[in-house]
Design goal:
alpha/beta; globular; seven-stranded mixed beta sheet; binds pyridoxal-5'-phosphate
């Protein structure tokens, strides 16, 4: 027998393990130290009360034989699909059909699983730095080539730098599948309509497909597009991933959705039909309780409660951003994102800065180099801690810088 040899090529991801180990060693050596984490990309505020109420009443339904439910639809229940369609698309003037929406257990699975639809010879393009799942999933699927130095030979890296405000340029070599993520993790960059239109036009011209990760769209505050389908022509070239994780605190509940438009055809095949076939074979749907919870995100109370939490995180982001730029550091993010991305001062590497901040301020962040080669020399802080801890951390950071 043969195993999938691509797994042996994967580079071990030491990022979060190393962060945890270094932090644990510091705590052991300094038991009195109050270490504050602004490193983890996970939410901390509790679920909105409207969501909890919906979960409680749907659990009660599961307790009665008349209202008990077994297997859910592999594509999502109508009550949730209708709420998504109305609130995220129709009310925003975006024309999407219900059968183009596929409810899932969060964006991570589908940003990785979507590779099932594409042949192994396709060339994949990614922004650098970026959420690492796109690269590793494509390596598993045989689209990585070999790892040489700090890059995969078959993957095209669109380098995002301070000079271009961390927005990628259009690929100048052949790319079949382009992974875009806006607002971006880790840089916090969001893309405006005109720039996103250029990517859509490029994809249409080249017959490429854009995989658009909009997991942080709820953080957009300045009118930039929340969905790629706000852009003319996107339905013929783009798949979009959405998540309730950072929108409604669902990182532990697990729910999101993927949009695969019927107008998206390649090689004479409908990607929507292929994805439907894929989901009905490999996925058994999201639990009833979770889908009722997600539906409650769209109720008037749910919307207000989610927005209050997003505002809370955005305030934290602004506190971090203002403090760091106030001491002269070059910072990005915060406006449309729960992340602040900044350049390490004095030419320090990402990991050197990690050590400095841990030792001198007892603040844990994430080295930018963990998100791709172009992240070296940068650092990410997140807005997901409490306002009190964020303010305390920022006070300490000011002293260090
Ligand atoms: N996409 C991006 C860009 C992310 O940063 C994350 C999580 O941090 C995800 C997707 C995964 O989200 P989910 O919790 O929906 O799986």
């Amino acid at each position: 027998m043969q195993i999938n040899a691509n797994f042996a090529k994967l580079q071990a991801s030491y990022l979060f393990r190393d962060i945890a180990q270094k932090t644990a060693a510091f705590r052991a050596a300094n038991p009195q130290a109050d270490v504050i984490s602004l490193g983890i990309g996970d939410v901390t505020r509790p679920l909105p009360p409207a969501v909890i109420k919906a979960m409680e009443s749907s659990v009660a339904e599961m307790a009665e034989s008349d209202t008990f439910r077994g297997y859910p639809s592999a594509f999502g229940e109508d009550f949730l699909l209708d709420a998504i369609l109305k609130n995220d698309f129709t009310d925003r003037g975006i024309d999407i059909d219900k059968d183009e929406i596929f409810v899932n257990d969060g964006a991570k699975s589908d940003t990785a699983n979507i590779g099932d639809l594409f042949g192994t010879d396709n060339i994949v393009g990614v922004c650098d730095p970026v959420y690492p799942v796109y690269v590793d999933a494509n390596v598993m699927g045989g689209r990585g080539g070999e790892f040489a130095g700090n890059r995969w030979t078959k993957i095209v890296y669109l380098t995002c730098t301070a000079e271009n405000d961390f927005l990628p340029k259009l690929p100048d070599e052949h790319v079949d599948i382009l992974c875009l993520c806006f607002p971006n993790n880790p840089t916090g960059a969001a893309i405006d309509r005109a720039d996103l239109q250029k990517f859509v036009d490029w994809a249409i011209e080249h017959g490429s497909v854009i995989l658009y990760d909009a997991a942080y769209e709820a953080y957009i505050t300045d009118g930039k597009p929340r969905s790629i389908y706000e852009i003319d022509g996107a339905k013929t070239c783009a798949i979009e991933f959405r998540s309730f994780s950072k929108t409604a605190g669902f990182t532990g509940v697990r729910c999101g959705y993927t949009v695969v438009p019927k107008a998206l055809q390649r090689d004479g095949a409908s990607l929507n039909a292929m994805w439907g076939r894929r989901q009905s074979t490999k996925f058994n749907g999201v639990s009833y309780v979770t889908q009722r919870a997600a539906q409650a995100v769209y109720s008037p109370e749910g919307k207000a409660q989610c927005q209050a939490t997003i505002d809370y995180y955005l305030d934290n982001a602004r506190t971090i951003f203002d403090a760091l730029s106030g001491v002269g550091l070059s910072c990005w993010g915060a406006v449309n994102s729960p992340y602040v991305w900044f350049k390490a001062p004095d030419g320090q590497s990402s990991w050197e800065l990690f050590d400095t901040l841990l030792n001198d301020a007892q603040v844990v962040g994430t080295p930018g180099s963990g998100f791709g080669p172009a992240g070296e020399g940068f650092f990410r802080l997140t807005a997901f801690n409490t306002a009190e801890k964020t303010a305390e951390a920022v006070g300490r950071l000011r002293k260090v810088f």
